[in-house]
Amino acid sequence: MLNRRSCLSAAASLALPSAGGLLPRPAWAGGQLEEPLADSVRTALSAAVSGSAPPELEFASTESRMSYLRWLVGCSDRLVKRKPDAQARREFLQTVWYESKRAGLDVSMVMGLIQVESGFRKYAISSVGARGYMQIMPFWMRLIGDGDAGKLFHMQTNLRFGCVILRHYLDREKGDAYMALGRYNGSRGQPQYPNAVFGAQQRWLIEEPRSV
User: Fold this and answer.
1) Which keywords does this Swiss-Prot/TrEMBL entry list (predicted)?
2) CA distance 11 to 89
3) CB hemisphere CA count around 73 (13 angstroms)
4) What's the CA angle centered on 120, arms 118 and 124, to 5 degrees?
5) What is the tens place of the pLDDT at every residue in 181-190?
6) What residues contact 65, with CB distance under 8 A and at least 6 apart?
7) Do the beta carbons of residue 74 and residue 207 sit within 8 Å?
8) Threshold 0.85, pTM exceeds
9) 84, 165, 187, 189: which is deepest, by most CB within 10 A?
């Protein structure tokens, strides 16, 4: 079991720079379908993705902070082969946690989705043009962003769009994750994609932090 000292030491080690990087490669996943959005929905989604300030984590107690550090260390250990640079890995995980919680999503599901969608590759591009970690289709920048699809390769922008879009689909499907994930992939009602995400999610079922 990790104690306070080991958590803090391990978390600090994540900030040490190391060699490594990711090159753009095709991704097989990604294919949200463009659908008409009511003005109220478009406005709400636009507001949800506005702002690009880096996440600032605040904790209500030492216990909640330690819970977060246990999650961070556990995920980092499992992600090191895909993201060898320790600082980039820590910043990525911190942002995934922040944006998942901001959207009211299960962090392990978001991690599973990213694993399936892009294999944790920042510059992944699918055969249908979806981009980045969460494979966001460029039309979303026109619908709820500023129209600049190039920004979808920015880490926090991509993760925020992905989490907000998944939250939108979950709300449309009344909390049914199976159907929402299918909609996210453009394959609503088909089992392959949701089952792949649920399977990948199991790898990321680490103790998640309590509310901060």
Assistant:
1) Signal
2) 11
3) 19
4) 45
5) 999 998 898 9
6) 59
7) yes
8) no
9) 165
**SS3 sequence of the chain:** CCCHHHHHHHHHHCCCCCCCCCCCCEECCCCCCCCCCCHHHHHHHHHHHCCCCCCCCCCCCHHHHHHHHHHHHHHHHHHCCCCCCHHHHHHHHHHHHHHHHHCCCCHHHHHHHHHHHHCCCCCCEECCCCECCCCECCHHHHHHCCCCHHHHHCHHHHHHHHHHHHHHHHHHCCCCHHHHHHHHHCCCCCCHHHHHHHHHHHHHCCCCCCCC
Do residues 96 and 110 touch, judged by C-beta distance below 8 A?
A: yes
pLDDT digits (tens, 9 = 90+) for 82-120: 999 999 999 999 999 999 998 999 999 999 999 999 999
Token digits of residue 180:
């929402």
Per the structure block, which two tokens stand in for 158? 């991509």
The residue written with tokens 């803090």 in the block is 8
For 42-61, how does the pLDDT look when each residue is reduced to its tens digit (9 = 90+)? 777 787 677 666 677 877 89
pLDDT tens readout for residues 117-144: 999 999 999 888 999 999 999 998 988 8
